Amino acid sequence: xxxxxxxxxxxxGNTIRELEGGTEKQCHVLIPRDxxxxxxxxxxxxxxxxxxxxxxxxxxxxxxxFTLSYVFSHTQQDSFIILEAxxxxxxxxxxxxxxxxPQANWQEREIQDLFGLVAGNLPDPRxxxxxxxxxxxxxPFKKDFQSQQKIPRVSGQYIFERVExxxxxxxxxxxxxxxxxxxxxxxxxxxxxxxxxLEIRHFYTHKGxxxxxxxxxxxxxxxxxxxxxxxxxxxxxxxxxxxLETLADIQVPERAQFLRVIFLELxxxxxxxxxxxxxxxxxxxxxxxxxxxxxxxxxxxINERLAGTRLLRNVIALGGVRKDISxxxxxxxxxxxxxxxxxxxxxxxxxxxxxxxxDRIEGTGQVKKEVAETLGxxxxxxxxxxxxQDLRRDHPYAAYKELFFMVPVFKxxxxxxxxxxxxxxVYESFKLIYDALHTMPEGxxxxxxxxxxxxxxxxxxxxxxxxxCFHWIATDREGKITRWKIHSxxxxxxxxxxxxxxxxxxxxxxLINKSFNLSYAGNDR
Amino acid sequence: xxxxxxxxxAVGKATLPYAPHAAKTTEGFLGAPEIDPAKCTRCGQCxxxxxxxxxxxxxxxxxxxxxxxxxxxxxxxxxxxxxxxxYQAISFKGKFELAARTKKELCHxxxxxxxxxxxxxxxxxxxxxxxxxxxxxxxxxRQGDFADKLTLxxxxxxxxxxxxxxxxxxxxxxxxxxxxxxxxxxxxxxxSNPIYDAERFGVHFVASPRHADMLLVTGPVTRQMELAxxxxxxxxxxxxxxxxxxSCAISGGMFDGNYAVAGGVDRAVPVDIYVPGCPPxxxxxxxxxxxxxxxxx
Lengths: 525, 297
Known about the structure:
The structure holds two protein chains of two kinds.
Chain A: H1 2-12, E1 17-18, E2 26-30, H2 36-45, E3 49-57, H3 60-63, E4 66-74, E5 79-87, E6 93-95, H4 105-115, E7 118-120, E8 168-173, E9 185-191, E10 194-201, H5 209-213, H6 218-225, H7 233-248, H8 254-282, H9 286-307, E11 316-317, E12 320-321, H10 327-351, H11 355-361, H12 369-374, H13 379-384, H14 391-394, H15 415-439, E13 457-464, E14 467-475, E15 481-487, H16 489-500, H17 509-516, H18 520-524
Parallel strand pairs in A: 2-5, 6-7
Antiparallel strand pairs in A: 1-2, 3-4, 4-5, 8-9, 9-10, 11-12, 13-14, 14-15
Helix pairs in contact in A: 6-7, 7-8, 8-9, 8-15, 8-17, 9-10, 10-15
Chain B: H1 2-11, E1 33-35, H2 45-49, E2 55-60, E3 65-71, H3 81-84, E4 90-92, E5 107-113, H4 114-119, H5 160-167, E6 171-177, H6 183-190, E7 203-205, E8 214-218, H7 226-235, E9 241-245, H8 247-251, E10 273-275, H9 282-293
Parallel strand pairs in B: 6-7, 6-8, 8-9, 9-10
Antiparallel strand pairs in B: 1-4, 2-3, 3-5
C-alpha cells in the first residue's frame, strides 16, 4: 500500500499527503478537489486497484468543508486506500467521475440528493433517492437538518427515459408487485415481446437509516444494522461490528471469529436455498421450489435453535458473539447439516434433469463480463459473469484466513450460471461450517466492551450472500457516531439488471430478477 | 418423472399441524420479553438499554407512584434488556402469539409507590430517560398526508362481526410492503411453504388488491410508499381488513421519528389487527389473521 501512496505522490507532487488515523489496512490520502479526476483515473488504471464505492460526509464542523471519500481496494495486498477531497460549502461542486467510471453514476446522484453537493458533468443529474414530491433545497444528511423534521409534499414530475418508434410500448410495473416482494418501480419499453429498455426507479423504502444511526450507542447501532436488509441481517451486523471494533480497538476472541464464520455461512445457505427455489418456481417447476423451501425452513429452524431468532438477529455483539455452539448442540447441528446436504444434493440432481427448467434458464438474462466489470458488479452475479472476486478470499475477515474454500466462477453470465454459482457456494458453505466447527478453539465468546475512540473512522466489510457489503463509521470529538455509510451489494447490482433483460422477453423478467435476487431495502436504506 | 415421484414419497408429509394457542416453537426461540411482576422493582435499568423505548417509565408526582410500561408494539425482541435487569425479572420464553386489536392491549403496565422504588440501589431517575407517550386508542391515521383521500364511511368503521359471514372460510390476502427491511416478507413467504401451508386454512395470497379481502401491511410506511399504500387500500373492495405486521408497522420500530417514515401503518390507513414481532414468525402471522377473522373463538 505504501507503494501506491508513493506512486501517487511522485505523480501528483506535494498537493497530496497522507492523513493520520489510518490503520495497517486502511490508508487515508488527502487530495485537492481539482485533482480528483486525475488521481481516481490513475488509480483505476493501476491493475490491482478497484474503486469499491464513494460517499460524502458533512465534516463542516471538523474541517470547514464537506468531505468526499473514494474507497479503493488493493486486491493483492489486502488493503484499502481512501482518497479524501474537501468540498467547500460556498462552492459545493465536485467533478463527476461517472463519464469514465459508470459504476459511480447512482452513487454520485445519491450524494447530490442527500448532501446538496453538485456533481459537475454528471450525464444524468435527475434525482435518485427522492421522488417528485420532495421539495428542492432539503438535504437530510447535512448536519443542520433535524432528523425528526417532516418535509411538506410538493407536486412534481419524474421524467422517464423514453424509447420512441413504431410498435414500442411502455409497461409500468410497481411499486406494489404481484408477489410477496418489496416495492420498486420498473418501466419497460418493449417491441412486441422483447425488452428494448428497462429503467429502474427505486428508493420507495428509503428510511434514512444512515441518518438514524448517527449518535446511537454501538449496541443500538447493531440493532439498526440488523434491520437494513432482513434476510442479510447477520452480514450487515457483522460488517457494522467490525467497523465499530476497529474504532474501539477491540480484539475479537478467536472462538467468536469462527462462530461468526458459521453464522455468516448459515445465512448464505438459507439465502441461496431460497434463491434457487425462486428460480425453480419462476420457471414453473414447483417440485424444486417446494422441496427447497422445505430445506430453507429446516435451516431457519436450526438458526432459531442456535441463535433464538430465525433470521440470526441478536447474535452479534460488540467484541464477539452472544451465542455459543457446543456440546450436544454441536453434535446435533452437525448431524442436521449433513442430512440437509444429502437432501439438497438429491434435489439438485433432479433439477438438472428437468428439460423445462434448463430450457428456461439457459442463455436467459446474460450479463457480459465487460458490463459486470464496468458497472462494478459484485457477489454471485459478478462471479457468474467471470469476475473473480470474493472479499472472504481477497480481504479475509473473521476466521476466513484459517479456512480453505473455493470461489466458484462461471463465465456465461446467464441465469443458469448464476444458479450454478449459488449451488456451488451452498456446497462450499456446508464445508466451511463443517471445518469451522471442527477447528474452532475453546475460549471466551466476547471481549470486554470499550468506548469507541473520538475523531476516527473505520471500514467494516463482509461478503454477504448478495456480494460485498461495506460499513464505514466515523466519530466526532466526543466519540459519538457522526457518519455511518452503508454500502450494500444490491445498490451496485441493480443497474446490471437493466442490461441483463435487454433482448429478453417480458415474461422472463421475473426469472432474471429472481436469479439476481437483490434487496430493495438494502438498496434504499 | 420417476425420480421426482420417488423423492416426493421419500420426503413424505412435511406440513405441521396448527392449532391456535398450541403451536409449539423450536426450543431456543427467544420470543417476547416477559416481566415477572414479583421480581421487578421498577428501578428502570432495562429502560436505559431498550433501543426502541418499548420499555418506559413515568413518575406520577401527585400519586407518588412510578409506572413501568412494556409495549410489545414497540419491542424489536433484541434481548438487550434481559442482562440489564439486576433482579432477573425479565425472561424470554418463546412467547409469540401476541396479536391484538388495539395498541392498548399490547401495552402492559406495572406500578409501585415511588418511595419504595427510590430505596432501590439500581434506581434510575426519570430525568435520564426519554419518555415516549404510551400508546392510546385514538386512531391516529387522520394525521397521514393522504387521510383526506379516504372516503368517510371507511374511517373507523367496525366490520368484525360481518367478516366471518361475508368471507366464509376462505380469505384472500394482498401483501403490501410499506418500507420493511424484508424480514417480514421472508416470513410471509414462508407461510406458503410446505411446512406451514397456509392455503389449507383457505388463506391465499393474491396478486392484486382488487381480489383481496385483507391487506397484510409491513414496514414503518415510508414517505415514498405512503401514497402507494393509500391507493392500494382504496383499490381493495369493502369490507376489508388491514393487518399491521411487525414492529415497524405498529409503531415505526427502529425507524420511528425519522424524516423519511410516517411511523406505523395506522398513520396512513385504519388498522384492524396488530401483529408484534421483528419479524413475527409464520405462526404469529397466522394467529393474527385468525384473530382478525374471529376464528380464534
